[in-house]
Amino acid sequence: MLKVADRLPAGTLQEFIEVEGEGCSLGPNTFDIAALSAGKTIAIFALPGAFTPTCSAQHVPGYVEKAHEFRSAGVDEIWCISVNDAFVMGAWGRDQKTAGKVRMMADGSAAFTNAVGLPLDLTARGMGVRSQRYSMLVKDGEVKTLNVEAPGKFEVSDAATLLAQARSL
Length: 169
Known about the structure:
Layout lengths: L11 E6 L9 E6 H5 L3 E7 L5 H13 L1 H6 L4 E6 L3 H11 L6 E4 L4 H5 L3 E4 L5 E4 L2 E6 L2 E7 L10 H10 L1
Parallel strand pairs: 3-4, 4-5
Antiparallel strand pairs: 1-2, 1-5, 3-8, 6-7, 8-9
């Protein structure tokens, strides 16, 4: 499992882009994780699935509401990562009003989730392999903090906890 002081694993994530620009076309765009995180401080939170109850009612809204506070604390970007495809993440982002606040990053095949060692097997519940719920602060590709939730919990990966950690870096 990924731990503090580790570097983010090599690989890619996808994001559904609503407006063409900065070299990005409309629709799904693939981003190299190392290139995207280079020279930036990023608040990353991951969760089991788009449009699921806790994720939609608490997890994403907390980061959307505190996006400006994260920026004031020196965080350049906020990423939400889920094992969903870019189309689903794009639709969920529109529903949650994340534009300009939280980047909705798709890990469609769970490659990133497996590389960080935080998969959650929900096959018995009909959801397949998903991501555990966690948050982390990453600076120039290096993990500075990591908060992994116990199964079924939402206590340490919330926006308030990660924001307090960002302020103390």
